[in-house]
């Protein structure tokens, strides 16, 4: 009975928040969109230092206009823009992360003269703003400001102190972000980070993401003769290098796509019933995705997309050996290389998986070298290969679905919309700022809000107006968590 | 007793032929080498029609000078140069084939200003002539002329009527050769063709080759999603295209390098004891070859090079899928291709092996397409691949080692040198004029005579003088078969 009353009361509050914020957004739509269009008119490629500075100044003014105490934080690279807004009585601090730089542009490929002179096409909620960073990632900054204003206008305060950090180098892998932590430790202190970046689930529903996979890339090379040898004069007698690589790769997975490398999944923890239910509740339209990609069926061992995201991958992203096509020569190749990427989950370490993969290669009879083998090494070992790491390992991150801060956020969104958000336990891809999350040491959640078909990183990047306006309600719910 | 006397008599005859031809060659060395240097001074790239014509005229004059009735035979391409020399009482006609065109040149890569201005470096028998076609294939033409002269000077006649055909398009795959047969049938009629081309065995001993492998090349492509998809967003769920190709390729051979495609070796006929002995007698220096190539051991299933040449191959000559190296992207590739060459032996048909390979691919669950699959095909089949033929199939050829004409030739060389020549049952590589041999319909043998390290087809092609002079004795022995 009491539970019923409480539910009814929460539902009323929900309807209130959604109704009042929506009404305010409707009334101020022109000003909100105008503020975004102004922000999009400043070019923001990370390497364009003068314009990056203009963006930072513009955003500092925007934060001030919406009640934040703003600051430009200098770093070893592009400046961070910072804002603080304290709420009397709040016992929790939430740090919102967005970025204000954008991907480089090739204007010739756009359907408009200048990616930094925004163009609006279409009508009403279906209208779209076309400009670099329209979705990625200036829209969420403006939406956050609007949500703060909408709450204020509704006589509501955020339930936490707010900190905002705006990164000017995300599309360049945020090299200055982790080093800036030591310098600005006090300003960045919070209980939860909320990343406003990326597209919402393709269903268009509010989306909460608990984590993202990490990545490590390696090149696996099998060495054959010192240089390609004539396939007629030596074919059958000289071992075929490309076939050896193929056989080695084939040994790594079973017929259903599961990794056979010993111990690869050893550290994986079984899903809880709640997590299982959460994955099953994600409204993925597999049939539609397969149709778009032109593939009849997913890997037999991973029929459900969300399940596939919970395990590390072993993906061959490229193969190369001698030539294919007009340049092909009738030789036994001198080497064959597979470019591999391994997506990590929270429970796996990149070093560990690469070590296990190395052990697997050795178990197939290969002697591993780091550099191209010399004559003595060639004479000694029948099978030679190199497994070489490319670039840094980026770890996965994941906040526990049972974390009380996560529960509070999801509860607030659920109340506001009358149904739970789409909850993704693990994004398949990698978040470039994962090292920043790791270094800060408090949990992070991603609340991606823009339309999934926004052409992010490509030409004709766009933002659907209806999705943008709805995102203000979602962010208001987050502020009221 | 009689056998002993006969052997002694043959040995005397042997010593006679070798001694008298060698003495004549020694006495005329300057003139012989001069004749070759003159021939090398005429550029002979097949596409250089005016100079090809100059070569043809020059060779016609050379044939006339050495007692042949010469003729230039026009074709749809470059002219053939033809010569006939009848021997009173001869019951057999032997057709010698050489070619007078050479590979294109890149003078900047040569250690001399002009590949068509021959340079001699070194002293005595170790001296070498550097020029395009020095070895491939003008030297054998001049050596044949010298051998005819040397026999004549020794009071000996060739044991057969001689026909000579000099091809002007061999390095351009001899497109006009087979069509010319119908027009010049009578002139080309013979009992045996002897091809004077290519390097002698690396031991430097006289060499007789009974056949050569043919070739067919195919591209095997496995199709994945329509375009590369994000390896994070879809990794594990989306089947990996490159791994599928690797698994398919791995299924084609066992761990020792033998082809597992059903029926691949079905048409192979076991070696006779004589053939077995012949293969075992080839003085291949495997250890040296492995050292040069930088490989510790040959394929376990083919420990002996000559054995490896008696079976068809299945060689992956190239692999390609998306990118490896700096351009690598974290995607699941849209396609993966293996470029394959299959070397054929006399007992195998190219069509048959490709059909068996196709059946093998289908047996692994693939639906085979010819063109890139359309949406309906993509939706219907879980595994899609294409196996596409490149260019024409060139058949193998092989003359039986028990053919009486082959036995007569080998016996004559054995008598002359006091030991049998190196006999190669099957060259591993492919002879471009195999279709010509096939169309003529009588047996062919290759008597390759130049130094194995002649840099054929490359810059700084050369001819070792000692090997060249010895080849005149070998050819004289062939003329006396």
Summarize the structure.
Chain A is α/β, with parallel strands linked by helices.
Give a structural overview.
2 copies of one chain form a homodimer. The first copy, chain A, is built from 15 helices and 20 strands. With 481 residues, chain A is an alpha/beta fold. Chain A has 2 domains: 10-212 and 396-479, Aminopeptidase (3-Layer(aba) Sandwich), CATH 3.40.630.10; 214-268 and 311-394, Alpha-Beta Plaits (2-Layer Sandwich). Chains A and B meet through strand 10, strand 11, helix 6, helix 7 and strand 12 of A and strand 10, strand 11, helix 6, helix 7 and strand 12 of B.
Which band does the percent of strand residues of chain A land in?
A: 15-25%
Oligomer: homodimer
Count of β-strands of chain A? 20
Per CATH, the architecture of the largest domain in chain A is 3-Layer(aba) Sandwich
List keywords for this structure.
homodimer; 481 residues; alpha/beta; Aminopeptidase; Alpha-Beta Plaits; six-stranded mixed sheet; five-stranded mixed sheet; disordered N terminus
Furnish the topology, listing elements before pairings.
The structure is a homodimer of 481-residue chains.
Chain A: H1 2-40, H2 49-65, E1 69-73, E2 80-85, E3 93-99, E4 119-121, E5 128-130, H3 134-153, E6 161-167, H4 177-183, H5 185-188, E7 192-195, E8 207-209, E9 211-212, E10 214-223, E11 229-230, H6 231-234, H7 241-250, H8 273-281, H9 286-293, H10 305-308, E12 315-322, E13 331-332, E14 335-344, H11 350-363, E15 367-368, H12 375-380, E16 384-394, E17 397-398, H13 404-417, E18 422-424, H14 434-440, E19 444-446, E20 462-464, H15 465-479
Parallel strand pairs in A: 3-6, 3-7, 7-19, 8-18, 15-16
Antiparallel strand pairs in A: 1-2, 2-6, 4-5, 5-20, 9-17, 10-14, 10-16, 11-13, 12-14
Helix pairs in contact in A: 1-3, 1-13, 1-15, 3-15, 13-15
């Amino acid at each position: 009975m009491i539970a019923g009353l409480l539910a009814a009361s929460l539902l009323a509050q929900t309807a209130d928040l959604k109704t009042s914020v929506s009404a305010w957004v409707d009334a101020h739509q022109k000003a909100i969109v105008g503020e975004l269009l102004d922000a999009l008119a400043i070019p923001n490629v990370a390497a364009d230092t003068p314009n990056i500075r203009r963006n930072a100044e513009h955003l500092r003014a925007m934060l001030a206009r919406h009640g934040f105490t703003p600051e430009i934080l200098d770093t070893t690279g592009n400046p961070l823009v910072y804002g603080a807004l304290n709420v009397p009585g709040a016992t929790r601090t939430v740090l919102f992360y967005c970025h204000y730089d954008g991907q480089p542009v090739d204007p010739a490929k756009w359907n408009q003269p200048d990616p930094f002179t925004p163009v609006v096409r279409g009508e009403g909620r279906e209208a779209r703003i076309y400009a670099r960073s329209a979705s990625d990632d200036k829209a969420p900054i403006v939406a956050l400001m609007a949500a703060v204003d909408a709450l204020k206008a509704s006589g509501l305060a955020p339930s936490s102190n707010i900190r905002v950090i705006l990164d000017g180098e995300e599309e360049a892998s945020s090299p200055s972000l982790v080093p800036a932590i030591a310098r600005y430790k006090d300003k960045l202190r919070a209980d939860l980070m909320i990343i406003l970046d990326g597209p919402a689930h393709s269903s268009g529903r509010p989306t909460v993401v608990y984590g993202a996979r990490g990545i490590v890339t390696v090149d696996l090379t099998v060495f054959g003769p010192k240089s390609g040898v004539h396939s007629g004069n030596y074919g059958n007698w000289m071992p075929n290098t490309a076939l050896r690589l193929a056989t080695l790769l084939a040994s790594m997975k079973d017929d259903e796509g599961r990794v056979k490398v010993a111990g690869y999944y050893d550290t994986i923890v079984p899903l809880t019933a709640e997590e299982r239910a959460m994955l099953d509740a994600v409204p993925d339209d597999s049939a539609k995705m397969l149709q778009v990609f032109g593939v009849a069926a997913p890997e037999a061992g991973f029929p459900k997309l969300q399940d596939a995201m919970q395990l590390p991958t072993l993906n061959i992203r490229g193969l190369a050996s001698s030539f294919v096509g007009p340049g092909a020569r009738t030789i036994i190749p001198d080497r064959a290389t597979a470019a591999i990427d391994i997506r990590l989950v929270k429970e796996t370490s990149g070093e560990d998986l690469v070590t296990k993969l190395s052990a697997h290669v050795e178990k197939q009879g290969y002697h591993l070298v780091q550099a191209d083998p010399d004559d003595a090494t060639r004479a000694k070992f029948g099978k030679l290969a190199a497994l070489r790491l490319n670039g840094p390992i980026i770890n996965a991150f994941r906040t526990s679905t049972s974390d009380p801060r996560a529960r509070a956020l999801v509860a607030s969104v659920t109340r506001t919309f009358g149904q739970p958000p789409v909850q993704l336990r693990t994004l398949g891809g990698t978040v470039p700022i994962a090292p920043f999350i790791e270094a800060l040491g408090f949990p992070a959640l991603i609340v991606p809000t823009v339309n999934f078909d926004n052409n992010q990183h490509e030409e004709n990047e766009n933002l659907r107006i209806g999705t943008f306006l709805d995102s203000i309600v979602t962010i208001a719910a987050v502020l009221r968590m």
